[in-house]
Design goal:
It is a single chain. Helix 1 (10-21) crosses helix 5. The protein has 5 helices and 5 strands. It has helices spanning 10-21, 38-48, 61-66, 78-87, 110-119; strands at 2-5, 27-30, 96-98, 104-106, 127-128. It has one domain: Glutaredoxin (3-Layer(aba) Sandwich), CATH 3.40.30. The longest helix has 12 residues, at 10-21. The two termini are 13 Å apart. A 5-stranded mixed beta sheet has the order 4-3-1-2-5, sandwiched between helices. By secondary structure, the protein is of the alpha/beta class.
Length: 129
């Protein structure tokens, strides 16, 4: 299991605390430092079952500068959104947990974190990447 976090984010810290309390084995990815490629973003979107605009933080200053609220949300525009997320990782909703069963969740609530835990197997300690 891997969790994409921004350490400054309270939701991310809360998710990490819950994973630790449950004894979960996971890897931390600080995605602002270890920026995901477009291919990795596409893979996570597939695992989430979402579109890029579904995980975009449109209230961020860069999103406003780019005018993203006005961007089309259709298949023809998908790659434009993915490219923007790769170029500006701060726009990616967080935390995202990729579970061992091939799925992923945007883990902004304790319930979502527990959902990801239920999909993953194994116990152990965390490791930072």
């Amino acid at each position: 299991m891997e969790i994409w976090i921004n350490p400054a984010c309270s939701k991310c810290r809360s998710a990490i605390s819950l994973l630790d309390a449950e004894g979960a084995a996971y890897t931390v990815r600080r995605y602002l430092e270890d920026v995901p490629s477009e291919a990795e973003i596409r893979e996570v979107l597939e695992r989430l079952g979402l579109e890029p605009w579904d995980i975009t933080r449109t209230q961020e200053a860069v999103a406003k500068e780019l005018g993203m609220k006005e961007w089309a949300r259709d298949p023809a525009s998908r790659e434009r959104w993915v490219a923007a997320l790769a170029e500006h990782p701060r726009l990616i909703q967080r935390p995202i947990i990729t579970a061992e069963d091939g799925t992923a969740v945007v883990a902004r609530t304790d319930e979502a974190v527990r959902n990801a835990l239920g999909r993953s197997q194994g116990e152990g300690s965390s490791t930072a990447v």
